[in-house]
Design brief:
Elements (H helix, E strand, L loop, with lengths): L10 E7 L2 H16 L3 E6 L4 H6 L3 E4 L4 H7 L7 H22 L1 H6 L2 E6 L4 H8 L2 E6 L22 H29 L18 E3 L16 E2 L13 H8 L5 E4 L8 H15 L3 E4 L14 E4 L4 H4 L5 E4 L3 H9 L4 E3 L6 H11 L13 H13 L3 H13 L2 H12 L6
Parallel strand pairs: 1-2, 1-4, 2-3, 4-5, 5-6, 6-7, 8-9, 8-11, 9-10, 11-12
Length: 419
């Protein structure tokens, strides 16, 4: 039993807005807090409803379904400028939806924990006098000279260039949000200076759900609270047919792009399969939001839909994925070599971190995917010395309980409803 004596039972609102990678860590934390006696409610993107209910959490949909919007905008994924424009359009709608729909949930709560693209949450907490923390899964959300703004796909830059990029990025953020966001704050009777970013990600109210063995927090982000990853236990057994495939030969590679969509999923599937055939490796392909796969898979390949990463990843020769923060952490925790094929946003950041840690070969931008590049990636997995480092990091992550650290921090920080 993980229930210690509590100072106070609280109503805790979790507010994750985004794809599964934004929602799943909050579900893990919500289930853990609920087990410790707190009353937990999730108000987030509608695409998180099924997951929340599977883990016994009350769920309320806020705004639009991110999965459907990414499917509608999948032609934009490969282009950073289009990605920025897409998010600028979606953010206007998100501002309206969040200010309109979150108020009763925040009134109910003692403590509000937000994650993902939560634009109205801190403002509403200010107006209602509620305790607030933002949970960040990637340091790149916060201005630092150690990394560029999240829309920028090139991450190994001098500090002075990162500084200049952030100055430009903040100007763009202010320009994109000023009209709708500041108007909504004004209606609440709140301060409305031009420094919009401090009303969304207030730097004194951030919990970094990361582990320093993967990414140390930059000096200009200190002092900072880091709890380790919010890991959702998924001990589900693998299907018998999948187990039989795994055990029928050498350990296969897993390839999956999670919540990323794809303009040409059949073409992507064929590239992966042809590369695997040329190198002579077996593969498990995750269907994901990209809808990868084909009707008749070759005997060296297996197609999966939703499957427990906790059960699957430790049995893989290597893991190739899109670079979401959650998938990166799950692969690292499994102690297996991994490589990242980033599509957008912080995925380039995580690809760089994995390369620097030497736990897998260097990946490449998804838009540059070819048979030759994929085949080379498979070959580098088998020829590189990544196993020892991957197992070392995996052991460190398995020994740390991020849920306990986060819950303990929240309970100590908020013994009452004051922030």
């Amino acid at each position: 039993m993980n229930q210690p004596p509590l100072l106070r039972i609280m109503n805790i609102l979790l507010n994750p807005i985004g794809s599964r990678g934004d929602i799943q860590p909050m579900i893990a934390l919500g289930q853990y807090l609920q087990e410790r006696g707190h009353t937990v409610r999730v108000a987030g993107s509608p695409n998180g409803a099924t997951l929340a209910k599977c883990y016994g959490l009350a769920f309320y949909g806020i705004g639009f379904n991110i999965q459907k919007e990414l499917e509608n905008q999948k032609e934009s994924i490969d282009n950073p400028i289009r990605v920025y424009r897409m998010f600028k359009t979606l953010i206007k709608q998100a501002i309206h939806d969040q200010f309109a729909e979150l108020t009763p949930h925040i009134e109910w709560a003692d403590v509000v924990l937000a994650g993902g693209v939560t634009l109205a949450t801190y403002s509403l907490c200010e107006a209602k006098g509620k305790a607030f923390r933002y949970i960040a899964y990637c340091p790149q959300l916060v201005p630092s000279n150690d990394h560029p703004v999240i829309f920028f796909p090139f991450v190994r830059l001098p500090k002075w260039i990162n500084h200049c990029i952030w100055r430009t990025g903040i100007r763009l953020l202010r320009s994109g949000l000023r009209e709708h966001f500041l108007l909504s704050r004004n209606k609440l009777g709140l301060e409305t200076t031009s420094s919009i970013e401090k009303y969304i990600f207030p730097d004194t109210k951030i919990i970094y759900a990361i582990d320093e063995c993967i990414v140390p927090l930059a000096a200009d982000l200190q002092p900072a609270v880091s709890t380790g990853y919010l890991y959702l236990p998924q001990p589900r057994a693998l299907p018998e047919k999948l187990l039989s495939f795994i055990e029928a030969g050498d350990p296969p590679f897993y390839i999956g792009f999670g919540s990323m969509t794809d303009q040409a999923p059949l073409q992507t599937t064929r590239i992966i399969l042809q590369a695997a055939k040329e190198v002579g490796v077996r593969v498990i392909i995750g269907r994901g939001w990209a809808k990868l796969g084909m009707q008749n898979m070759p005997p060296f390949a297996y197609l999966v839909d939703t499957v427990s990463h906790e059960s699957l990843f430790p049995r893989m020769a290597g893991i190739v994925h899109h670079g979401g923060a959650g998938t990166t952490a799950a692969a690292a925790r499994a102690g297996r070599p991994q490589a990242i094929i980033p599509h957008l946003l912080d995925q380039f950041y995580w690809a760089d971190r994995i390369e620097r840690l030497q736990v897998g070969p260097k990946g490449f931008w998804k838009r540059r995917l070819t048979i030759q590049k994929m085949a080379t990636l498979f070959e580098e997995f088998t020829s590189g010395d990544y196993e020892t480092k991957a197992q070392e990091i995996g052991g460190r992550l398995q020994r740390r309980n991020g849920l306990l650290e986060a819950a303990t921090y929240i309970e100590k920080m908020f013994p009452s409803s004051s922030s």
